[in-house]
Amino acid sequence: MLKSFAAKATVPPAIAVTGFVVVCCILLYSVIKTDMLNDAIQHETNLADTIVKSARYAMLKDDRETLRNIIDNIGQQKGVEHTRIFNKKGVIMFSAHPEDVNKLVDKKAAGCIACHAGTVPLTSMGRMEQARRFINEEGHSVIAITVPIYNEPDCFNAACHVHSPSQKVLGTLDIGLSEEPLQKTLGTLRGRMIVFCLMVLVLTVGGVSALLLRNVLLPIKELANYVNAINRGDLNRKAPAYRDEIGELARSYEELATRLKATQDELKQQRAAEGDGADSRV
Amino acid sequence: MKRTQPPPSHEVPAGTPPDRDSVRQETIRRIKQLRHKSNRGLWAMALFIAVSIVALGDFSILPSLPPSVRAILGKAPSAIMISGALVLYTFSAIILVLARMMGGKEEYSGFAHVGYLTAFYGFYHFAKALNENYWAVFVAGITILGLESYHIWNFCNEAIRREQEILDAIERFRKS
């Protein structure tokens, strides 16, 4: 079947077009996914900065009750998986999950290791490095952002004198948002691209195959049947009527068949005449 | 002592047709060679699938490169650059195979493509983007190697058919 004329004409372009379109769609989806993920991380980082700025006054006034309320309210928002503030030693001081308060976090944990990998912890990081993706205990996909809370002149000049001027980072805000809306959007995008891909393949491969079948393969098959009939001795058969190159080929075969028939008739007449002549001599 | 003279050389006079048996043997040998050649595509495909299985786990079964070697290699290219190169490579490879099919050339470069595709897996691995782009490289490989396999299989089958006609002609002459 793969050796037939139809296969040779349709299989290579079908494989080429299908493969190339699928490769391009996969790469396009991958690029869009990366861009959407980067946008989500950018949005989360801005949100984290907003939270730190919103909590600034409460921290400055050492108003822990207000700060606790801010963290609780943020934690109750739909899509927020966790919100917590660590102090410099890694102890969770405020959290939307009360059971996490006063727990010590390992510096080697994800979200902490990026700054604490070396002997001297980093005090600033790029936006993308601040983000991490994981699946939490509830089985939800989470994008988490860790932003430092920097020491400012208003902090180390405050009446409580808690922080010294040499301390660059006072603590860290860690916020985790559910990836579900992003995954849902990506799922919809994936579905649409698959549908588009299928439509393109049906049009190109199906369309080209259908036109090839109608305009080339079927006429060639008809021509092949006609020539086989001539070969079997049916010289009176009419050639298929086409106006293109196949039609020319068919007419040439018809002429050959007509000449062959004429030659055969001449030979018959000659033999018949010779036979009569021999009879009359006898 | 009588000197033994070497036997007279068997000179073939000009215009003598070649020995039919030797032509027949030569044709059978060529048909065997063509049959072996037509399976090359499958071997390349199998090799590519083996490499893809290793790449599926992000090359976790292979030992990771020491930091000194990584430092020498430098920073990996960005994933988007590698993807652009992959699209160009796939496009040009497909065009080249189709051109060879159209020209009826025997040239086969399936194993070279396995090498190039392995390099793409490697580049994505170093750029830490293999999980997102694995299937793109896999589909590109299946497409290019599938076309190469079909081309060489088709070419060899046509060549075998022509050689078979020679054998049939020899048989007909023998019988007559």
TrEMBL record, chain A:
Catalytic activity: ATP + protein L-histidine = ADP + protein N-phospho-L-histidine
PROSITE patterns (alphabetical): HAMP (PS50885)
Example GO biological process: phosphorelay signal transduction system
Coiled-coil portions: 246-273
GO cellular component terms, semicolon-separated: plasma membrane
InterPro entries for this protein: HAMP_dom, TCS_sensor_his_kinase
Name recorded for this polypeptide: histidine kinase
From TrEMBL, chain B:
Domain Yip1, first and last residues per copy: 27-147
Transmembrane as UniProt keyword: yes
Major localization listed first in the record, in broad terms: membrane
Keyword set, alphabetical order: Membrane, Transmembrane, Transmembrane helix
Superkingdom classification of source: Bacteria
Transmembrane regions: 42-65, 77-98, 110-127, 133-153
Topology term for the membrane: Multi-pass membrane protein
Subcellular location: Membrane
Gene Ontology annotations for the cellular component aspect, listed alphabetically: membrane
Region called Disordered, residue ranges: 1-23
Ranges of Pro residues composition bias in the record: 1-10
Protein name: Menaquinol oxidoreductase
Species of origin: Geobacter metallireducens
